[in-house]
From TrEMBL:
Homodimer. It is a multi-pass membrane protein. Its main location: membrane. Keywords: Cell membrane, Membrane, Sugar transport, Symport, Transmembrane, Transmembrane helix, Transport. This is Sucrose transport protein SUT3. The chain crosses the membrane at residues 15-36, 56-77, 89-109, 129-147, 217-236, 274-291, 352-375, 395-419, 431-451, 463-484. The keyword Cell membrane applies. Belongs to the glycoside-pentoside-hexuronide (GPH) cation symporter transporter (TC 2.A.2.4) family.
Amino acid sequence: MGDTEDGGGKKQPQISLVGLFLACMVAGGVQYGWALQLSLLTPYVQTLGIPHALTSVMWLCGPIAGLLVQPCVGLYSDKCTSKLGRRRPFIFTGCIIICISVIVIGFSSDIGYALGDTTEDCKVYTGKRLHAALFFVMGFWLLDFSNNTVQGPARALMADLAGSHGPSAANAIFVSWMAIGNILGYSSGSTNDWHKWFPFLQTRACCEACANLKGAFLVSVVFLSLSTVVTMVFATEVPLDPATAKSESEAGEPSGPLAVFKGLKNLPPGMPQVLVVTGLTWLSWFPFILFDTDWMGREMYHGRPDGTPAEVANFQEGVRQGAFGLLLNSVVLGFSSFLIEPMCRKLTAKVVWVMSSFIVCVAMAMVTVLGSWSLGDIGGNVQDAAAQDKGLKSAALALFVALGFPFAVLCSVPFAVTAQLAASKGGGQGLCTGVLNISIVVPQMIIAVGSGPWDELFGKGNIPAFGVASVFAFTAAVAGIVMLPNLSKSSFRAVSMGGGH
């Protein structure tokens, strides 16, 4: 096998395709945790006494980490001269912090109990647990920052090692591990038997729902640890020459977030329009991403995380069904990912993007209608309404599945369009991708800050946010028709985001 030259001018030995697959295993381990985080943590934190209107604020850490952590870690990993290589030190350190943060989240109820939140058994106590909530939020934020610490170097590592296999093969492997991690994570989140398999997880502070979450997260720690070891063994990197790193530093070029903001004036034609449509598209998606399982628990199964035992049971059943829906969504996402490139070559990326926005518009409208119909009173309080039709639960599950296709579009087409525009200018891929990330994290911040108070204003549920999401999706579709550039069908090249928030 031949060698390839890395960014430091040294020869990187060519890795086999199987070796490349194993070298990327850490992506599956990280995605396992992402899936659990997305499906379980918004519902769970409400059992600790954090009101529904404030749960979305927790997710501010995601866009902040995406805006600041990933570019900075990317910069430092580019210049790292460790004997382990440029990427593996960050991957290894980040994975250790992920494991610590997951353990803090899983045992937050026990920590709060030890610090005096209550002396009552969790089977009878339904009040606030402030110490537990504090440690939960600390662990949650630490988890998001450490996830972002790993993701950037993991993607860069695949590019470094791809060699003659090419970026398409590296990207396909990365997405495959994404899908595996999602399927495993959502399967774990939809399982209600962790407390039976590991009865020692239940304590006076941690009842069934808590023990199930604890079990799922502890298994994710084991899987991530295994994934990290496999990646560290098979991803053999050539260390960066210190002299090369020094010369690059002395060049004085701005890097990280500074380079992104400074380079806004040098965007290729059509890129500003792509940023606008991307922002609108993500505004239509984040209410679902943040509140999907909570919506199933509250609006479709009429449960309450802080209600009677029967209401809590209903809520947890809805959360599990939502996690199962996300599992099916991930399967559709995986299959759809292989269809995106041929569709864009046949219809153009613009048509596929606009079509997916219209699908999301209809789906979010249906989420709003199903929730209101299930509650039996569109203008009433979502906490107290009774179920009207059990068949609506199946329809809700079907919506989760159907959204797998537009999510595949979301994770690939904007990045592929960006790559084409950058190539048409003769470079600037890093700049354009960094700017595109801004149009993703800003909508996250808007939804994280605004959706909780907005839902509080209209009845302490999730329905209003989904109604607004439908409006944003329609606006994104119209803006796409008017603003997106018409790009060549034949030059389309699929580029995936690679997972995460």
